Amino acid sequence: MAHRKFTLTKKLALIILLAATVSGLIFMTMQKISNGLIDRYLNSDEYYKSESTQSIAKFSNFVKTNHLPSTDRKAFGEWVKKENYIMLTIYKDQVLQYDSNYSLEDESGYGVERETLYAQKHSYSVMFSDGEGRVTVDGFFSSRYYDITFTLELLSSTLIFLLIVLLGIRRSLAYLRTIHEEIHILEGGELNYEMTIRGHDELAMIAESIEELRKAFLDKLDAIETLQAESRSLVTEMSHDMRTPLTSLIMYLEFAKKEQSESVSDNGRYITNAYGKAIQLKKLSDDLFDYFLLDKEQEEDLESIAVQEAIYDLISDQIAILRQEQFKVRIMGELPQVYITVNLEELGRVFDNILSNLLKYAEPKDEICITFNSNAELFEIQLTNTIKIAEDSPESTGLGERIIGRMMNRMQGQFSRSQEGTSYRVVLSFSKSKV
Question: Could you tell me the pTM of the whole model?
Answer without folding.
Answer: 0.42
